[in-house]
Amino acid sequence: MPNANNAAIVEISQTANKFRSSIVLQYDNKYIDVKSILGLFTTLLASGTYNLHVHGPDADDAKKAMVEVFAKHNMTVNAVND
Question: Which domain of life is it from (predicted)?
Answer without folding.
Answer: Bacteria
